[in-house]
Design goal:
WD40_repeat_dom_sf; 239 residues; 15% helix; WBSCR13
Length: 239
């Protein structure tokens, strides 16, 4: 997929052949992405809503069409960026209105079911448009704004902490690794790797909530082990 800063989006196959040309109707495009599962494409811009489009194929694997699957709504101003979990069950958005949102998108959209907002958080806009990344388990949102990266707990919407002045100029891109243990930060001529310390904290909270409900003995043992491991990791950074 390619997308210009204006309204042109082009979908290609793996051989470089054009499958579809689309008009995003966004006036100015801030970002465009393909979902990790490969089913969806999105573009963001001046609109406060995000149209998630599905690239459809026949049972034989032949390209069929690109259709709107669903929309992410609720912001009051243009969307800067979006981020997916690997299975596209959750999508995060960040807007010019000073908020980010986490949506549950594991839905039956062909039957008319719509995404719903799980959490909304606030951030302080910088000079340049921010970039976001969502951890594989959707528990942590990383927000890169200018030269800083902030980590948010998506269950509470609260800021966990900020790593400041990672580069002397603006950060270009952020992404979690497949395990969610690390965050890759791209800028200038280097990629810097940060520990997802916030993820250890959210794992403790998640396991604690699960322990408050009825669980099998094996699950209780596994949850307690996870809590202990995360506490040990946090202790190394707190000392």
């Amino acid at each position: 997929m390619s997308c210009s800063a204006k309204t042109d989006m082009i979908i290609y196959d793996l051989k470089g052949q054009i499958l579809e040309r689309l008009d995003t109707y966004l006036m100015n495009t801030h970002s465009a992405k393909i979902s990790p599962c490969g089913r969806f494409v999105v573009a963001t811009g001046f609109s406060p809503d995000v149209k998630v489009m599905e690239v459809c194929f026949t049972r034989n694997g032949d390209f069929k069409q690109v259709v709107k699957a669903f929309e992410l709504t609720g912001h009051n101003s243009g969307i800067y960026d979006v981020a997916f979990t690997p299975d596209t069950s959750h999508i995060a958005t960040i807007s010019k209105d000073g908020t980010w949102k986490l949506f549950h998108t594991n839905i039956k959209y062909t039957l008319g079911e719509s995404p719903h907002v799980l959490e909304t958080g606030t951030y302080t806009p910088g000079v340049n448009p921010p970039r976001i990344a969502l951890s594989p388990n959707a528990e942590v949102l990383a927000l890169a704004c200018d030269t800083n990266v902030s980590f948010y707990d998506t269950y509470t919407g609260k800021l966990f902490g900020t790593v400041e002045n990672i580069y002397s100029s603006s950060i270009n891109y952020v992404s979690f690794d497949s395990s969610g243990q690390y965050l890759y930060v791209c800028g200038e001529r280097a990629v810097r790797i940060l520990h997802n310390v916030c993820g250890w904290s959210t794992s403790i909270d998640t396991c604690t909530r699960l322990l408050a409900t009825k669980q099998t003995s094996a699950t209780v043992e596994r949850l307690n082990k996870t809590i202990q491991e995360c506490k040990e990791k946090l202790a190394k950074f707190n000392n």
